[in-house]
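A.,

Following up on our hallway conversation. Structure tokens first:
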């Protein structure tokens, strides 16, 4: 599941600060907080057929994350939305595009950890690329030794750029020759994978870990809503790795890959003993959402 370079992105324009730059010129200062300490928040959004899916939810989460980190001089929601629209229009992107939206604490007057050194306000980055969903039809996972951050240390409800915890888990998965690293919490229960939320199905009922240590992802939320609307039993629960080994179906959710089947964890094959097509049903319902919902592009 290694992404490859897409030459269609050679000439993209990227929004940084207050205007668009060609790819080769799109940069932030070495004094920017994202460089100095990973001090930034981000969102991943996807464009489907002239609409940005769940834009309002993503902008709300970004604003809440920035507030939690006490960012100053945060751009307005209207400014950020307009920057997204301008970037997509400049690149002619109306479908099959992914947006990496980043808001840093901004540029510091000198190197240092103290946020009071940030006197120029936040830096906004809108990076839109030609990128359809990047996950294959199914993936494999391995349980990693890296534990997911607990709120006691760094709350995952803040959608921050300090991602070394997840990157270390991904490195373990790479060395194991699989696609994702499955991360446990400090109690040994499954939390999420290094870049996606996880679900399991047993006897027609859908389960997902409590969002205590994991990010309550927006795609995850859509799946919970779909289950409720379709009358599929679904609940959050403390889940052990053993329960995932013995599930009928396991899948992961996220903006980059939508809903993706997991066929193997730690060498254990996930076998659907009931034959109920729960994941297929959820995938079809999610696809319908992406085809009918979202914020229309104004161009």
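Then the amino acids I'd put at each of the 299 positions:
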């Amino acid at each position: 599941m290694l992404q490859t370079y897409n030459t269609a992105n050679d000439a993209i324009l990227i929004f940084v600060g207050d205007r668009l730059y060609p790819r080769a010129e799109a940069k932030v200062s070495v004094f920017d907080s994202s460089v100095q300490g990973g001090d930034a928040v981000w969102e991943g959004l996807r464009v489907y057929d002239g609409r940005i899916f769940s834009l309002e939810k993503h902008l709300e989460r970004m604003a809440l994350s920035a507030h939690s980190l006490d960012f100053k001089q945060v751009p307005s929601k209207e400014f950020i939305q307009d920057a997204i629209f301008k970037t997509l229009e400049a690149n002619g992107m109306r479908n099959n595009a992914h947006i990496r939206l980043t808001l840093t604490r901004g540029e510091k007057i000198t190197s240092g950890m103290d946020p009071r050194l940030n006197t120029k306000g936040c830096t906004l980055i809108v990076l839109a690329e030609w990128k359809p969903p990047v996950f294959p039809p199914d993936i494999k996972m391995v349980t990693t030794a890296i534990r997911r951050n607990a709120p006691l240390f760094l709350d995952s409800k803040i959608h921050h750029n300090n991602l070394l915890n997840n990157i270390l888990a991904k490195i373990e998965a790479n060395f194991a020759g699989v696609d994702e690293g499955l991360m446990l919490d400090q109690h040994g229960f499954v939390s999420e994978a290094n870049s996606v939320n996880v679900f399991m199905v047993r006897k027609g009922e859908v389960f997902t870990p409590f969002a205590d240590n994991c990010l309550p992802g927006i795609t995850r939320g859509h799946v919970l809503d779909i289950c409720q609307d379709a009358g599929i039993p679904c609940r959050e629960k403390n889940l052990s790795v053993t329960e995932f080994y013995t599930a009928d179906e396991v899948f992961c959710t996220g903006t980059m890959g939508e809903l993706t089947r997991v066929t193997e964890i730690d060498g254990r094959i996930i076998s659907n003993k009931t034959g109920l097509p729960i994941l297929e049903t959820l995938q079809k319902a999610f696809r319908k959402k992406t085809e009918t919902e979202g914020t229309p592009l104004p161009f």
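The CA atoms of residues 19 and 83 lie 8 Å apart. Curious whether your intuition agrees with the design.

B.
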